[in-house]
Fold this sequence. Notes:
With 197 residues, this protein is of the alpha/beta class.
Amino acid sequence: MAENIYPIFEKMLQREDREALLKQKGTMIWFTGLSGSGKSTLAIALERELYNQGVLCRILDGDNIRSGINNNLGFSENDRTENIRRIAEVSKLFVDCGIVTLAAFISPTRAIRHMASEIIGKKDFLEIFVSTPIEECEKRDVKGLYAKARRGEIKDFTGISSPFEAPEQPFISLDTSRHPLEESVQILMKAIMPKIR
Length: 197
C-alpha cells in the first residue's frame, strides 16, 4: 500500500512562505498540569492577548478534541497516548502553517509529552507546566471529578489513582494559586513573544 503514496511536500508552499505572510513563527505552546490547574483558563487568556498583539493563534483543548476528532478514545494508557499522538499531528499542521498553537492537555507523563514534542518538533515546542497544587485543583473542581475519583467512581484519574509526572525542564512553570490570571498572562507574553516575532 505504501508504494502507492506519493507525497507532494516539495511542490507546496513552504513553512517559511507562510510565516513571512503572517509575520510570525509557528510555535507550539503546550500547557500541562493537573485537572483544574488552570491550563484552559490560561490558554484562553493568552490567546486573547496574542490576538490583541496581532498574532494568529488557535487553541486545542482536551474537552473539545475529545468531543470531536478523538471521540472514539477512552482514558486507558493506550487511548491517552493515541489522544496525544493525534493532537500532536494536528498541531504540527497548524505550526507548519505559521500559526501559534496553544494546547491545554493534562498529558500526564514525560514520555507522552516527549512524543508530542518529537512529532511537532522540539525547537517549536514550548512546554508550560501549570504547577498548581492538587489541593487547590480540588477546591476549584466544578465538575466534581476529584470527589468521584476519591470515591473510586472514576478509574485512572490523574493525581488520584493515576500518576502525574511533572516536567523536569519546562519552558515556564506557573502556579496559578500564586499568580493571578493577568499576571500569569504577562509572564507568558514576556517569554513567548520573542520566540514568535
